[in-house]
Amino acid sequence: MNKKNDEISNLTQSQVEELRKENRDREIAFSASVMQSGGGYIGPFTSEITLTYRNIFTNIGNAYNPITGIFTAPLKGAYMFRVSVFGVGGILTTAAIVKNGKHVVIAHDIQAQAQDRLNSSNGVLLILEVGDVVYVRLWSGTRIYDDGNNHNTFSGFLLFPLR
Fold this sequence. Notes:
Layout: H1 3-24, E1 29-33, E2 40-42, E3 49-50, E4 55-60, E5 64-65, E6 70-72, E7 77-88, E8 93-99, E9 102-109, E10 117-128, E11 133-138, E12 144-146, E13 153-161
Antiparallel strand pairs: 1-4, 1-13, 2-12, 3-11, 5-6, 6-11, 7-10, 7-13, 8-9, 8-11
């Protein structure tokens, strides 16, 4: 190799390293399930509740709070969120992804037979401003079941930042 190619190669490597450093602050992703251990039902309740997903699989950027169940956007950008719910029949299983207090999408299922399993999921792409919050609400009169199989999950990640 000649010296000119080495300089181009080094410059390119330097640029790659700079881009990696710039993008570290933009790495935001989380995924969690409801139960840390054991198993059981959550709900039904007489009013909606915010679900707390305490079994953290990943929380890059620490934007998801497992104590409150709330994701807070640290950057303006396009974010993808996904929720899955699981229950045992005889009662509705319904949860909603909520942005700043407004329902956006729901995951819902019902089976008449008590022994039937319920499973639903949904996802949404949201444009968030810094400080916007996203969380999952279990609807009143509904319930979910979770155990070590991690049936009920909430996940989100930054697709790309916006100016």
